[in-house]
């Protein structure tokens, strides 16, 4: 066997061993949470963040579509299943609630922070497969939770995916709704507060946009007539603006009454 053949064989053996380790971890995750998958590959895919694409040169070079190697398609599906489960739960819980109330409550239930908290409860911060040097943040974890829901729905049926979500809703919904509705739409509340007190509205300015394209972090400043009111960061401009508005709401009296 030539040196090149020996090197290739050694590399393949290492890759096989690594794959077996990953599969074992996936099986342990499934057993820990009593997730009985017919197709364990779906669970493995749900636990694979797009940042691993940087480490998958062989698969990509062989023509595999990037979307088939990461969890974003499952995240897309799980988001829909999660939204339906939340809507169904809220509809049944309060027969007298109108559409606007139900919508606000649903938004409060499926916030990124909430899904990330449930993900950490499941141990996804440890189980999620990431590229080298990456660390799981709320955005990654909320996406992974949705991907798990999507994988369950594909493997065991949509009803099973909804049952999985209802475990969390039944326990946490009341607390989450109370907290979420109160904190919802800080941009709208800032607009109303400024209009009521000063007959003016805020402006938002992106200060920085950092990080790789798939994990950008934006920093935004909220101000009025050039006076800075608050700064916020987030994984999107919208999220950063909401965080800046939250900071501004707390600072309005101090900033504008001085």
How does the SSE layout of this entry go?
Layout (H helix, E strand, L loop, with lengths): L2 H30 L7 H7 L10 H5 L10 H22 L5 H11 L2 H11 L1 H4 L10 H19 L1 H26 L2 H13 L4 E8 L6 E8 L2 E8 L2 H20 L2
Antiparallel strand pairs: 1-2, 2-3
**Spatial strand arrangement across the major sheet:** 1-2-3
SSE string, helices as H and strands as E: HHHHHHHHHHEEEH
Number of domains: 2
State the helix count: 11
Q: What is the radius of gyration?
A: 22 Å
Largest sheet: 3 strands, antiparallel
Total DSSP E strands: 3
Based on the coordinates given, report the CATH architecture of the largest domain.
Orthogonal Bundle
Overall, the morphology is flat
The assigned structural class equals mainly alpha
What does this structure look like?
The chain is mainly alpha-helical. The chain is about 65% helix and about 10% strand. A 3-stranded antiparallel beta sheet has the order 1-2-3. β2 and β3 (about 225-235) form a beta hairpin. α2 (about 40-45) runs antiparallel to α8 (about 140-155) and α10 (about 185-200) packs parallel to α11. The termini are far apart. The relative contact order is 0.10. Residues about 5-15 have low confidence and may be disordered.
